[in-house]
Amino acid sequence: MWARLRAAPGGALAFGALVLVTAWLAAALPLAWDASSDAGLRAALERARPADRMLSATASAAPDTGGTGQLRTRVSPRRVERADTALRRAVRAPLRLADGEGAYGVHTATPAEASGAGLPRPSPGLPPKATVTAQARLAERSRVVRGRLPRPKVTGRQGRQHLEAAVSTATARRMRLAPGDSFRLRGVPDAMTVRVTGVFTPRGSAGQTADSPFWHAEPTLLRPSLVTVPPTSPGGTKETYWHFTAVIHPEAASALLTLRDGAELYFHHPLDTSALAGRQAGAVRRQMAELSASGATARLRTAAGVGRLTFGTGLPETLAAYERESDAVQPLLLTAAVGLATTAGTVLLLAAAPAAERRRAELALLRARGISLPGLAGRLLAETALVAVPTGAAGTAAALWTSDGGRTGWALAAAGAVTVTAALALPLRAVVAHRRPVPPTARPDAPGRRSRRRTVAELTVCVLAAGAVAALRQGGAAGDGDGTGAGGGGNGGGDLLPVLAPVLSALVAALLLMRCCPPLLRLLTRLAARRRGPVAFLGLARAARAPSAVPGPALWALLVAVTVASFGGMVLAGVADGRDAAALGAVGADARLATPGSADLPPGFARKAARAAGVEQVTAYRAHDGGDLAGVADAVTVALVDAPGYARLTRRNGQGDFPAAALTPGRDTTGPLPALMSPDLARKLGNGSRYTDLVLPGLQIPVRPALVRDATPAAQQGPFVVVSREAVARARPDTRGTALLAPNTLLADGHPDGTALRRLLAEAFPKADTATLVTLRTTERARYADTALKTGAERLYRLAALSAAGYSALAVVLCLLHTAPERRALLTRLRTLGLTRRQGTGLLLLESLPLYALTAAAGAVTSLAAVPLLGPGIDLRALAGTPGTLPVRLTADTASLLLPPLALLVLAGCGLLLQARLTGGTADLRTETQEL
């Protein structure tokens, strides 16, 4: 065996390098997907609200849940700590809780109204509300800035109790509280007085505090929040009030029982994300469901001793949302992985062809001397395993060493499959080729008899491909965005048949090509026979007689690689187009500027914005979010626009363009004004046969649907009505020049500079937060791809498509190596008959390039056919990260369709020219094929 390897060291090194790279790729892809899933889950938990990334449970201490003595015992610090310990002990793997980061205690069941002389009231009619909490371990996690921490003493009779509390520095500053101040809580027969004894701040740096669940499990523990109350009637104004938290001593928690709704025990524990893998999200969610089951709840209730525990739904919903996203992305990645595996496996089988052809005489001699097929296979297996096993193990080790963890079982299985395939390729090929003695005079390119088994196999493949396409169109490879599709449901990847659809389609195209090529080439041969010169006739005749220049497996590998590369390009192009469309729908243009509090834009602001850097076109309009269409719908988005400018914007961006004259009324200003409406509103108004009143603050005008569009730049979602400002001014002359028609929103097109627009808005509104008032389309688009799961999935998909393209290039090289000895012998014979070097080059090109050209054309046609055949069943919303209301489909991208076939043709042409140059330089007059 060692002698055989020393006899052909170049081939052994090339074979070992191929196995090394393929084994590394096979092991690295599953590990990379696991790492991407883990990072995606951690990122999903980090993006979620604090309450949605913790194991949260509550126990009621309301008056109707027990007697006074029982409730006092329930809220005592010792019983609360016992319940927290029981909850943590009930948790088992894979759900792990972070040590020392939890928060537990007792707080008021509902926020109570607070009254005090200095408490601020943004809306005069709404007093602030306070949550009083007795959170454990506050003294060791905080630092007193002023005053002291509260004591457990509670004075006064029931209903008029006095207790001490502390507030955070942000709460003290916003609510104008200082040590010695007091406020009263309403929610008891009389009132409860809370006296502030101190102001605290968290220990540690600002970064540690920002990520600490202890301080953020209760939303307003560190800083108060401004709560908005929606208007009670259309056109009304929104009201706001402050909600803050005051902390009392845990021993004083029993005082909260006198409130009308009583108290509530809470337990918040963050997950240990460092030990949580993405594949364990489903198991964690099921375990949380088990904790809420009757048997587990009864055992936990007995151990905790605080009554029934109710678990929050925030964490399960976060995990479920991640699972839906992961399940929707997996089939798309699996499609690319199947294509890559098919191409790589075929290339491994093709790698044995040059060695088998080189050793054909040697193996035939061994068979003639009596070696059995098992003995022949065992001998060759030992030779190939001597190279494949060490290099496969090295590639696997390199993948494991460079990975960030994951399921090593899948990686080892994939790398093992590569090693076994590489080791068995040459023995199996030799057994098939030498199972019967081959006469020395047999021509390798002689046409064989058609096999019925081959016909049955080809028909079976066609039936499977048709079933895969039908299953994909019916269920979808990525589901419907909500995880309910056949491939993207909650089944971890769905059925395998839809995933195989692109590969099976390429296989059907390869079978059709192998069936159709010989007749087509024979027709071309007849045409070439009428011309002078032997080159065209000989080249086409050899290609038509037996297309050995591109063997059947190589043809399949090339077609699959071209299809997968083009399909991957179309997927990525569809994702990019979907993100562009979603960003345009969310913003309305390339930039949107809103005013603080819907204030009016200053006069001349639109002209200044039009001169800003990168701005090509602007249009300003008056936006109302709470319009009322009498008798039809309320909470309608209304836009009072400049019809010509707004029409130009819609025409430029392709967002429901319309003629400006359609919104301009005639001379009769007494009738209803023409309006552009969403389909649901127009349907309720008979698509223009009826009209109704549009009610806005200070304005009521009749409108009718003159135009119906699914989307418009001024409305991001929901029902909308667009009316011309000039038409309103004509119908109601008293509104011209008033704030009723003054624009408060501006849309800009082009390539606007966000910094320049924010600076311009800051000059007009110095106290406004311009970061939230200026929205760029580019920023919105980047937001759709900012999750680790989507970024990782897109990167892996791109890697798989590029790897498939690389293996297709390798398949071309192997095809050239496979036919090199035969071509060398052919050209040598023809050189003795007077064939020139230029004619030899033409012969090689005409023998092989038609097959490569047909293969490239078939790949392009197969990829193009995938858009109408597979496109309806593939929804790319999960990979694009766009909102669920906007479908994202395959896009017939020109570059994706043409670049892979053209690259195949260029590579094949360059390889053939190089082979012709190297072969044409020799002048060996021996006509036998030289065997090494």
What secondary-structure arrangement, pairings included, does this model have?
Layout: H1 2-7, H2 9-47, E1 54-61, H3 68-74, H4 77-90, E2 103-108, E3 112-115, E4 129-135, H5 138-141, E5 142-147, E6 162-168, H6 169-175, E7 182-186, E8 192-202, H7 206-210, H8 213-216, E9 225-229, E10 239-247, E11 263-270, H9 281-291, H10 294-304, E12 309-311, H11 314-350, H12 352-358, H13 360-368, H14 373-402, H15 408-433, H16 452-475, H17 496-499, H18 501-529, H19 535-545, H20 552-587, E13 591-594, H21 605-610, E14 615-629, E15 633-641, H22 643-653, E16 673-677, H23 679-684, E17 692-696, E18 699-708, E19 720-724, H24 725-731, E20 745-750, H25 754-764, H26 770-773, E21 774-776, H27 777-784, H28 788-832, H29 837-870, H30 877-880, H31 894-920
Parallel strand pairs: 4-10, 6-8, 15-19, 16-18
Antiparallel strand pairs: 1-11, 1-12, 2-4, 2-11, 3-4, 3-7, 5-8, 7-8, 9-10, 13-20, 13-21, 14-15, 14-17, 14-20, 16-19, 17-18
Helix pairs in contact: 2-11, 2-14, 2-15, 2-28, 9-11, 11-15, 11-20, 11-28, 12-15, 12-28, 14-15, 16-18, 18-19, 18-20, 18-29, 19-29, 20-27, 20-28, 20-29, 20-31, 28-31, 29-31
The count of β-strands is: 21
Low-confidence stretches: 477-494, 922-932
> Can you tell me the overall shape?
flat
* Secondary structure tally, helices: 31
What number is the mean pLDDT? 81
From the N-terminal CA to the C-terminal CA, the straight-line distance is: 16 Å
Helix content: 40-55%
Q: What percentage of amino acids are in beta strands?
A: 15-25%
Q: What structural class do helix, strand and pairing data support? A: alpha+beta
Q: In angstroms, what is the radius of gyration? A: 37 Å
What's the story with the biggest beta sheet?
12 strands, mixed
